[in-house]
Amino acid sequence: MILVEADVSEEWDSSTDWALLADAAVRAAVAESGVPGLLDDGVEAEVSVKFTSDEEVRSLNAAWRGKDKATNVLSFPMVEQEQLPVLTRSGAGEALLGDIVLAYGVCSSEAADKGVDMSGHAAHLVVHGTLHLLGFDHELGDEEAETMEEAERRALAGLGIADPYEIRH
Questions:
Q1: β-strands 73-77, 2-8 pairing
Q2: pLDDT-based confidence at 169, cuts 50/70/90?
Q3: What is the distance between the alpha carbons of residues 168 and 44, in angstroms, rounded to a whole number?
Q4: Contacts for 69 with CB less than 8 Å, ≥ 6 apart
Q5: In terms of CB atoms within 10 Å, which end of the chain has fewer, N or C?
Q6: CATH no. of 2-158
Q7: Widest CA span of the chain, in angstroms?
Q8: What's the angle, vertex CA 104, arms to CA 100 and CA 107, rounded to 5?
Q9: How far apart are CA 56 and CA 58, in angstroms?
Q10: What ranges do the domains of the chain cover?
């Protein structure tokens, strides 16, 4: 069973239920991750999603990654990838998978530039962040990037969100 905790700052538009969006996006990502057993009742896994300001994300990015700039999403895994199958095999595991942090201004600007709605873009970033928590890493090379993008496409399709990697003319 996945528990998704969401913390939403005031600048995020209140017309969207960001906590509900985070819950659906995390579940969709887990279902397409190769470790869908994390959704089983015997496993207790938690993901924290924070919808916050560019400044907070910039500060976290500087402190943890040495990059003094805001970025769209940060992921902070708490479980080693090798431990995930053990958690699901035992059927009675418990783990804090990690934290995902989204920056409002960067996300909003990207959504506008791509011509997509903010909620769909944020869902994509939560899916992306969740896959990072589960050991996916697009920075390890082209094959890994394509594997991660395919998992994202499947998860987003399950949420009714168009392929964010499709070339638009």
A1: unpaired
A2: very low
A3: 40
A4: 58, 61, 62
A5: C
A6: 3.40.390.30
A7: 48
A8: 85
A9: 5
A10: 2-158
CA dist., res. 138 & res. 145, Å (int): 4
Tokens of 60: 């976290």
Cα 125-83-46 angle, rounded to 5 deg = 45
Place of tokens 């887990």: 30
Which one-letter DSSP state was computed for residue 139? Answer: G
**Dihedrals phi, psi of 52, to nearest 5 degrees:** -140, -165
Instruction: Give pTM, 2 decimals.
Output: 0.90
Taking CA atoms, 102 is separated from 44, 83, 144, in Å, by 24, 26, 23
24 touches 123 (CB < 8 A): yes
Q: How many residues does the chain have?
A: 169
Contact 38, 87 (CB under 8 A): yes
Contact 47, 134 (CB under 8 A): no
* 146 or 40, higher pLDDT: 146
pLDDT digits (tens, 9 = 90+) for 50-105: 999 999 999 999 999 999 999 999 999 988 777 766 666 555 567 789 999 999 99
Q: HSE-up of 4 (CA within 13 Å, CB side)?
A: 26
Burial 14-25 (b: 16+ CB within 10 A, else e): eebebeebbbbb
